[in-house]
Amino acid sequence: MEEKMANDGAIERIAALKEKGLSFQEIATQLDITKDQAQKLHKRYGSLLPEIQEQTRTIESTPKGDYTGFRIAFYDLETTYSSWTTIFCMSVADEHGNVKTLSLETHRGKTWMDDSKLVKAIADELSQYDILVGWNSKMFDLPIINARLLETGQKPIGTQMHIDLMWYATGRHMKAGRRSLENISKYFRTNNSKTPLDVRLWQEAERRHTKEGKQAFRTIVEHCEADVLVLRDVFAKMKPLISTIHR
Questions:
Q1: Which is nearest to 160 in space by CA: 245, 235, 78, 81?
Q2: Which CATH number do you get for residue 167?
């Protein structure tokens, strides 16, 4: 039984979730196994995993078999706080819950804050999906991506169907207090939860040459990855509100 789960990729998923700070009980709940199985798999096989390199981060949970439905990208950006915004990273969770992250570490420019290669990779990644789903994404994420594409001499994106889920958390659709993703996820008691961060982390991450800057950047990446899973959970609750999908 353990070997079968190991071959199905459970070891990699357990290691990735442990790296994000989840307990064995939380991991067991997500993977639909017992806490004891999660601990035994991690203890027996975890040391055999190769050291994680600085590359595109992927957490996979794709079911077996062909999928012929719409490809959906639940996406989120993390950026600098300066008026001329630079993108730190983008995470995408697909319809199955696989998470992929592109960042300044995985697509390095001429300098640490050069995001020209990163934003090109982001545009290429999002173009693979039929529907984009974000939170305040039509007024923040997508305009920032397009601004960075235009500034670096590249073509803007945005021709896909696009659901900005934030606008369904207010007005005539529903009312559950503040329309922040954190509040709505708490309201629905989603499996995944947002990780609150100090705003100073973003300022620290711009100083990549320091030890503190490197750690701040990694924390922001983990925060971004958590956010897209929260977004996916909230979408599962709110999708009955959606009757029309615009571009």
A1: 245
A2: 3.30.420.10
Q: Are residues 131 and 13 in the same domain?
A: no
Query: CB neighbours of 79 closer than 8 A, spacing ≥ 6?
Result: 85, 86, 87, 88, 144, 202
Please state, in angstroms and rounded to a whole number, the distance separating the CA atoms of residues 123 and 162: 14
Average pLDDT, the chain: 86
Q: What is the residue range of 34's domain?
A: 2-52
Lowest mean pLDDT among 103-112, 118-127, 229-238: 103-112
Q: Provide the H-helix boundaries in 152-244.
A: 181-188, 200-205, 211-238
Residues 6+ apart with CB under 8 A from 157: 123, 126, 127, 142, 145, 146, 149
Is residue 194 within 8 A of residue 227, CB to CB? The reply is yes
For the entire predicted model, the pTM comes to 0.73
In contact, 239 and 133? CB cutoff 8 Å: no
